[in-house]
Structures are given as structure tokens and as C-alpha cells.
Write a structure and sequence with these properties.
Blueprint (H helix, E strand, L loop, with lengths): L4 E2 L3 E3 L5 E9 L14 E2 L10 H19 L9 E5 L6 H10 L3 E3 L6 H14 L5 E8 L1 H8 L15 E2 L2 E8 L8 E7 L14 H20 L8 E4 L3 H14 L9 E3 H4 L3 H4 L5 E2 L1 H18 L4 E9 L3 H5 L6 E9 L8
Helix pairs in contact: 1-2, 5-6
């Protein structure tokens, strides 16, 4: 069997698994942001008709998965794996959703990198011949994350300027080797990231903790594929927001791989209007990159507006216990190269 590994961290997927179903469900604050017209559904309030914020997040997750499957002209019984996670302890959103769906489940925790992590693993499962259809999904909820990681909402604590606003939303993507509907995009390469920790201990500065991991993974992907940022129409990170965005630009410039603002964007900066919506540094959470990818990026790939994209979601691998014990915050980033059904980058 030919070795599909390229270099140290990158794997080529010759079968080019297709992304053929997509869905993005968000909360009301996200529905007031710049991407409102792109989302499949905008909830009117944080409870989404449920009795708790946790149940609301689970319902967003379930609805996104079911719609992605439907838009891919498939059925839940045809899906062989559900790959996904969320931010909550024991990934209860994903686990309880899997309980209802009855699809074989691989629970993942990559913090805010989970959407890219699931696409990496899903792409390898399909390219390796281990499945024909898989669903990748991730979610977060502002109220559940605040309750778990910081303070109860009723406490009304002050937010620092570097803090990010956890997105309320769920995104899901159906992958297939034999798509029943027109593909949105194809996965050509995946790059699994390393855990990078430069000693950041401020839990209110996720961007600074994650940016070094983003640089490490992006540099590995570019080196392994012998490409530069100019070989892609767009490089999109998941959850760095303004602080992490600026740091990644600086780190890449120091490595002589500059990122231009025309070709580099971050989901955490796209989903909110930072000034009008008072989200400080920008958006974050598993649902941030998951919803922006499915609602905003994949349609541009399908139309040919974008031809070749690096989607790289980032995560801060901390816990409430590790933060209280003074541990630093490890970062991770996973990357996926996506190509339009119309072919690679336009000349």
C-alpha cells in the first residue's frame, strides 16, 4: 500500500473525500452579526425552546446534524460514523446527541479545534476505505461555557479586553466517497497538529495561547506540501480572534511566510461585529469555526468563488482544574486543505 504521509505531519487523501452536506444553527447574538444571512437557522433566544442551556446546545447539535444529512441527500441509517465533540465536561452535547441518533460514535475533544479535528479523522476514514459516509460536527453555547469555565451569568463579572465571546452554535458536515448531491468541496490534505505550550497562563487570553500552535501547524503543512500562503485563495483560522490573529501574522512574518489580510481571515473576527456587539477580542468556541465553515466558506468553495482553502481550527486544551492549579494553557491546531469541485486555485 502506498504511503500517503507527506513529510512530518501531513497526509494526502488521493480519493478526495467530498463534503456534500452542510448545516449551521446559531443563537440570536450570532444572528445579529455580519454573517446572519448565511446561517440555516437562528434561534430566538438562548434556551432554544428547552429547559436548560445544556439541552439547548444539544438540540442545536442534533438539528445541525440532521439538516446536514438531509442536504447531502442521505439518511441517518446510511451514515457509518458520527465524529464530533463540544466544550462541556465529558462532551455531553455530542454524547447525548449520539444517544438519540444511533450512529456509531467517535467522541472528540480538541477544544475549539474540534471541527477541523473531526474533518481530519473523517477524511482519513473515507480515504482509507473504512467508511462511505461520515458526519463531522461541533458545537458550543455561550451560557454553558460561561457556567463551566468562568462564572455564573448572574455574577456579572467584568470581561478583559483580550477575552473572547463563546459562540452559541452548531455546525455539521456530511462527508462521502460517493456523494448523492453535488459536492461542496473536496478534502485533499490534512495536517494533524502538535500540542504547543509557550507558558501562557491567562485564561482570558485564549488567542495568545493558541496562536503559536496555529503557526506550528501551518508551517508544517506548507513545508510538507512545498507550498506557500500564495498558493491558496484563503487561509482561515478558527478561533484566534484579534489578539491571536495579530500574533499569528507576526509569527509567520518572522518565518518569512507572511500572511496578507486579503488571504488570511479568522472565524472569530467574521462572526461578530466586535465594536457594535461588544465581543471584545472576537468569537471563540467549537461552534465558531464549525458554523462559519459550513455557512460561509463551503458555499464559496462550491460556487468556485474560492478554489483552494486551508481551514485550520485552533483549541486551548485547558480545564477549570488545571487553571486553578496554575497550569499553563497548551494549544493545538489541526488543518484541512479544501478544494472546490471546480478544481484548485484559479490562475
Amino acid at each position: 500500500m502506498p504511503n500517503k504521509r507527506i513529510g512530518q505531519q501531513t497526509i494526502e487523501l488521493p480519493l478526495r473525500p467530498a463534503l456534500c452536506g452542510n448545516a449551521a444553527f446559531v443563537g440570536n447574538k450570532e444572528g445579529e452579526g455580519p454573517l446572519a444571512a448565511d446561517f440555516d437557522f437562528i434561534a430566538s433566544d438562548e434556551l432554544y425552546g428547552q429547559e436548560s442551556f445544556e439541552l439547548a446546545e444539544k438540540q442545536l447539535y442534533l438539528d445541525a446534524i440532521n439538516l446536514a444529512i438531509t442536504k447531502g441527500s442521505s439518511k441517518p441509517e446510511d451514515v457509518q460514523f458520527l465524529l464530533g465533540g463540544d466544550l462541556l465536561n465529558q462532551i455531553i452535547t455530542a454524547s447525548f446527541s449520539a444517544r438519540e441518533l444511533g450512529i456509531p460514535f467517535v467522541g472528540l475533544y480538541g477544544a475549539c479545534s474540534t471541527m477541523a479535528e473531526s474533518l481530519c479523522i473523517g477524511g482519513m476514514l473515507l480515504d482509507g476505505g473504512h467508511a462511505d459516509e461520515v458526519v463531522c460536527a461541533a458545537s458550543s453555547h455561550f451560557c454553558t461555557a460561561e457556567r463551566q469555565y468562568r462564572f455564573p451569568l448572574e455574577f456579572g463579572s467584568q470581561r478583559t479586553p483580550t477575552a473572547q465571546w463563546t459562540v452559541t452554535g452548531a455546525g455539521a458536515t456530511l462527508l462521502s466517497n460517493a456523494p448523492k448531491s453535488p459536492p461542496l468541496a473536496h478534502i485533499t490534505h490534512i495536517c494533524m497538529g502538535r500540542v504547543i505550550d509557550l507558558g501562557i497562563t491567562d485564561a482570558n487570553n485564549m488567542g495568545a495561547a493558541m496562536a503559536p500552535a496555529a503557526a506550528d501547524t501551518l508551517l508544517a503543512l506548507l513545508a510538507d506540501t512545498k507550498t506557500t500562503p500564495n498558493d491558496y485563495d484563503l487561509i482561515i483560522t478558527g478561533d484566534l480572534a484579534q489578539v491571536g490573529y495579530d500574533l499569528l501574522v507576526q509569527l509567520m512574518r518572522e518565518q518569512r511566510m507572511p500572511l496578507s489580510p486579503e488571504k488570511y481571515v479568522d472565524c472569530g473576527l467574521l462572526i461578530f461585529d466586535r465594536e457594535k456587539q461588544d465581543t471584545h477580542a472576537g468569537g471563540s468556541g467549537c461552534g465558531c469555526s464549525a458554523t462559519v465553515l459550513n455557512a460561509h466558506i463551503l458555499p464559496k468553495l462550491q460556487s468556485g468563488e474560492l478554489r483552494r482553502v486551508i481551514f485550520m481550527a485552533t483549541g486551548a486544551l485547558m480545564s477549570t482544574t488545571s487553571s486553578l492549579q496554575g497550569e499553563s494553557i497548551p494549544g493545538i491546531a489541526h488543518a484541512v486543505v479544501l478544494e472546490s469541485p471546480m478544481g484548485g486555485r484559479k490562475s
